[in-house]
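Hey everyone, long-time lurker, first post.

I ran two proteins through the pipeline my lab uses and got sequence/structure pairs for each. Pasting them in order. The first:
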Amino acid sequence: MDWKFVLALIFALIVAVFALQNAGAVDISFLTFELTISQALVILISAVFGALVVLLLSLVRWIKGQAKLKNLSKTVTGLEQENKQLRMKLEHLEIVENEKIDLEKIPH
């Protein structure tokens, strides 16, 4: 298993145990919204929202990486084609140069 996955599981287990040990009711106020809810539920919901934020940020980073990889792949393909063309041109020039040398060797 990936060490990051194992670390995430351990962290999730710690959060779950912490939430269960702190299960008393708490009052939640947000703007005009007021609610009495279990503290364990607040902790678990907060952990889930935190995980979603991390997931979204990681997804953005992954998408940017994929776009960069695609761009670099196109660059590599273009450079490989240019390299092939230059090698063919070099071979042609070597052949022409060898023919010139052969013609110079012929006595007049």
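...and the second, right after it:
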Amino acid sequence: MGQYLILIYTDEASWAAIGEQESGAVTAAHQRFGQQHGAVLRGGGWLHPTAAATTLRRPDGRERDDLAAGEDALVTDGPYVETKEALGGYYLIEVPDLDTALRVARDVPEPFGGVEVRPLRPSVQEYQGT
């Protein structure tokens, strides 16, 4: 069994323009998705809009012994990049193969964008055989 992340991309402007009834219908569709695929779901979440994001970046030209941004990170409000579609949520699933992951992903409700399916790499312990 492998784990796959289903990334849900959406047009935030379209979401902002819909009414309560349409928003409720999409929420209900996600609840049905969860009931239909509960056996393979391992997690998921709905993200706040990109306006709520905070981005940390390594200062240009600064070298560090570790790979993290560190205490001298540049912190800015807002998303990393400006795009029409933004990451709006995700599902983590565990299924035998990519074909099965794609069958599950086809059922994800997303009226204003699309979904991307990506396999997760094994954990460090699994990779090292420990």
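Reply from user beta_strand_b:
Welcome! Quick read of the second one: The chain has a mean pLDDT of 87. The CA atoms of residues 70 and 93 lie 32 Å apart.
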